[in-house]
Design brief:
Elements lengths: L3 E5 L4 E2 L2 E2 L1 H12 L5 E4 L11 H15 L5 E4 L5 H14 L3 E5 L8 H12 L6 E5 L1 H4 L5 H7 L5 E6 L4 H10 L5 E4 L5 H6 L4 E4 L6 H12 L3 H10 L1 H7 L6 H9 L16 H13 L4
Parallel strand pairs: 1-4, 1-10, 4-5, 5-6, 6-7, 7-8, 8-9, 9-10
Antiparallel strand pairs: 2-3
Helix pairs in contact: 1-2, 2-3, 3-4, 6-7, 9-10, 11-13, 12-13
Length: 290
């Protein structure tokens, strides 16, 4: 699919509706700045608040603007296996290059249930699937042994690991085939995941610094470890601030400050608190992002 930095892109809103023009401009910004993959309808894209029709518009727009320059990967996960299959079929029919499937949430399941869930979905599509492990949101962790079982399914080709547990990432690497992709799901874990044999990041901060995020990845891949470490440290405080409130609240505030989008979210998310936003803006000015 890709190595390096793929952006988990936001869904911009204007007057309560999806702002397609702003979305097109965001995608072009990514294409112009070395992003290696585009993930739409993920957590950062507020997918859980979007209608079926809005999902279709977003997928169509992304595929049209990208025009095969980089992979377009669509978030099609749900805690309802049937709904996840429905979303998956929609994405495939519209021309997606791959899928990102978050673990079931709220009703959760056993590790056996996880395997059956993903096996059922994978059997309905020919597209490559990245499993998404984010226990902080779902209340459910995919154990390393479960990832290894899922890796036996032909079109499950990777995992987005957002547990923050580097020992778990290393154990996954030990158990899965060499060509199985491991992506960091946390911007502050890009280099640790690379050091465990990973392949890049599905990034939130790449929404505002796509070129720099890819430069960090490329530096590591080319063996320039000192430069990769310098960039990870340089942007560490920005990462802290981008997650001081629930994602995507801060990243939308940042993109709003850059003039790319209206700083609008859908309830239950609300705009960033002013005192926190001022800290974010100050850091962005320090880094000459704005």
């Amino acid at each position: 699919m890709f190595n390096g930095s793929a952006v988990a892109i936001v869904t911009p809103f204007k007057e309560g509706k999806v702002d397609i023009k702003a979305f097109e401009n965001l995608i072009q910004f990514q294409l112009d700045n070395d992003t290696q993959g585009l993930i739409v309808l993920g957590t950062t894209g507020e997918a859980s608040t979007l209608t079926h029709e809005e999902r279709e518009i977003i997928i169509r727009t992304a595929i049209n603007i990208v025009n095969k320059k980089i992979p377009v990967i669509v978030g099609t996960g749900s805690n309802n296996t049937g709904v996840a299959i429905e979303y998956t079929r929609q994405a495939e029919s519209l021309g997606a290059d791959g899928l990102l499937l978050v673990t079931p949430y709220y009703n959760k399941c056993t590790q056996k249930g996880l395997i059956e869930h993903y096996k059922e979905i994978a059997g309905t599509t020919s597209l490559p699937i990245i499993v998404y492990n984010v226990p902080g949101r779902t209340g459910l962790n995919i154990q390393a042994t479960t990832v290894a079982e899922l890796a036996k399914i032909e079109n499950i080709i990777g995992v987005k690991e957002a547990s923050g547990n580097i020992a778990q990432v290393l154990e996954i690497k030990r158990l899965v085939p060499e060509n199985f992709k491991i992506f960091s799901g946390n911007d502050d874990n890009i280099l640790p995941v690379y050091a465990c044999g990973g392949h890049g990041v599905i990034s939130v901060m790449a929404n505002v610094i796509p070129k720099e995020t890819q430069a960090m990845c490329k530096s590591f891949e080319e063996g320039n470890i000192k430069e990769a470490i310098r960039l990870q440290i340089l942007y560490k405080n920005l990462i802290n601030l981008l997650f001081m409130e629930v994602n995507p609240i801060p990243i939308k505030a940042a993109l709003g400050a850059m003039g790319y989008i209206e700083n609008q979210l859908r309830l239950p998310l609300t705009p960033m608190e002013d005192k926190n936003q001022q800290k974010l803006i100050k850091e962005m000015k320090k880094l000459q992002i704005i």
